[in-house]
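Quick question about two entries, pasted in order.
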Amino acid sequence: MRAFLAVYRRALARLRGERIFLLAAANLLVAGLQFLDPLLFGRVIGLLTAGGGWVDLLPVLAVWGCVGLLGIGANISAALQADRLAHRQRLAAMGDLFAHALTLSPRFHGEAPSGRLMKIMLGGADALAWLWLSFFRDQLATFVAFLLLLPLSLLLNWRLGLVLVGLVVVFCAATLTVIRKTEAGQQRAQRWHVELAGTAQDTLANVTLVQSFTRLAAETRLFGSLVERVIAHQFPVLNWWALANVLTRAASTIAVIAMVATGSWLH
């Protein structure tokens, strides 16, 4: 878990020159609007249940519509700025690694195949871009909701708020379990991914030399053995991530059912 947090810390530290406070403000707005949306929906249901007419409903519906439009605009703005930041910083990270590799000694380049370096540069830059993108698109808004909006739900209705807190604790525990189970396994699988890509690129870059020494069968067998090792290390990790994916998609459904069931029982 410490290594997981250290990766986030180092990745976000690269954004010191970016105006990330604008993205943070957009995520804060998105989180607040997500909190208002169900409140306004509940207000509409309450007015309909009490027999309210159009005169009572129109102001609430107008506010609800404005909140929805503002939420759409905030989501689009946050997603667009996150995309631009991720692509810009991805290219900057590739440039930094390229410049650093040029300064390394000939001994290092003799021991490290160029294909492995290319795999590390491309794979690492893509992983950083995906981390930044997912953080500023989804995770930051969720974190804000957890720290600020979850306590507000306890103030509005502490009984239903406790149900929500309990569900959050359960899903956080399940996610942490998946991370602990997959962290070491994914690192081993990634090393074999790098080895596979490096071997393939180096062989294709020297295909004429390989053909002249009639090593086609040997290189094919080596590639096949690396593929088997990648599968052997990657498939157990995929099983856990499949479970996490199902839990993530089911979280909203379970939360709604639990809240409605608890509310009906209290009523």
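Here is the second entry:
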Amino acid sequence: MSEDDDDKEIVLQGNGFSIVKLKQPGTMVPYPARSIPVEGRLNYGWLDLRGRPDLVDQVPEAREIPALAKLLRVLATSPTLMSSACEHGVFYREGLDPPWQGGSFVVIEFLEEEDNTNSDRFVDLAKSVLGGIKPTEAHHIGFDMIVEPLKTFFGRADCFALMIRSLGLGSTEKEAVAAMEHAINAVAESLQRNRPEAKKII
């Protein structure tokens, strides 16, 4: 068993999806802007979108991917959830078929601090989101739902978050990006469609 295996627990896994619990905290809310030396990019820091869908256009990643902007707006207007981070990218996978992969993630928490202290709430949320995603034959998509402990959540050290990774594969970069966008849209639509169910989790 590798060190990576030691740090995670697979809760549920199937064709095109997984739900995993991590054991080590990796981030905090809020967090400052910082550069990422390995990739030469800038982490822009946390932007508070709670109740402010009008601010989504200020998120650089969302300006590049319309589907990601849609997902952030759904979360910004949610009565129960919030977003704390997002990113996207597309990669060429040497020797794999299909060779191109687009990937995006958004990290979400419950608005009520106390609701973030039970990791099983996020497992239930992940299952709810996955259950609301409609199958497609037009794109090759997948989803990783990662429940992770936070270093701090507005000063609290006992909270968790859910990272939703939306993946798209294709024979070309364009196909992979289109598949990724379809996957992100599917998450946004599931969250929007299942808002009553999301309230029942709490």
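Reply: Residues 196-202 have pLDDT under 50 and may be disordered. The first strand starts at residue 8 and ends at 14. Hope that helps.
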